[in-house]
Write a structure and sequence with these properties.
With about 200 residues, the chain is mainly alpha-helical. The chain has eight helices and no strands. Helix content is about 55%, strand content about 0%.
Length: about 200
């Protein structure tokens, strides 16, 4: 019988390996909603840390620190690149190179104003979630990075559908559909969703 804490009926979610599941820090967590709440508290702390002063969001090392701050009170593997295969994302051995390339591309886009600010932030967010660098939390991580980069580029944070995208539902389905369009090189649905 599956553990209800890790049971998931959304194929767009990243399943954890048994070894990664054992890295859960709070011993009181036995239900999925308890895990979501603990992660959300941790993410709120990370947001306060990230916005307390200007940070170079296009530095891969800083991205690891941000992920660790988002999930480090909940998971021992927070901020560490995954080492196992996933249902989505690049091969694990390619993660450091792909993240660095995505950051370098975004830095170029900013310096040369290749795209409008919103598009730069959404494209970088999409690249990160497509790479899927961490065992879990990649969607929330990439959206927060997109929000923070948008702010640095003089834009407000995105609304990302104004709904909780962690739980399965209609808004999450629209988000996943927009991600798939971006995977197929059509960024417009994701741009629209980000500001919806």
């Amino acid at each position: 019988m599956p553990d209800p804490l890790f049971q998931d009926d959304d194929e767009a979610n990243t399943p954890l390996t048994p070894e990664e599941r054992e890295q859960l820090i709070p011993s009181y967590i036995t239900l999925r909603h308890e895990l979501n709440e603990a992660e959300q508290v941790n993410i709120g702390q990370a947001l306060r840390w990230a916005t307390a002063r200007k940070r170079d969001l296009l530095d891969p090392d800083l991205l690891n620190v941000l992920h660790a701050r988002m999930f480090g009170d909940v998971w021992r593997w927070a901020g560490q690149y995954r080492t196992t295969a996933r249902n989505i994302g690049v091969d694990a051995y390619r993660i450091p190179t792909e993240v660095r390339q995505a950051a370098d591309d975004a830095r170029y886009w900013v310096e040369h104003q290749t795209f409008p600010p919103d598009e730069i932030a959404v494209r970088f967010s999409h690249r990160l979630v497509a790479i899927h660098p961490f065992p879990n939390g990649n969607g929330r991580f990439s959206r927060l990075v997109g929000d923070l980069l948008a702010r640095q580029l003089g834009r407000p944070p995105f609304s990302w559908g104004r709904a909780n995208l962690v739980d399965a539902g209609e808004t999450r389905a629209h988000y996943v559909e927009a991600l798939r369009a971006a995977d197929a090189y059509d960024i417009q649905p994701l741009l629209l969703f980000a500001r919806s």
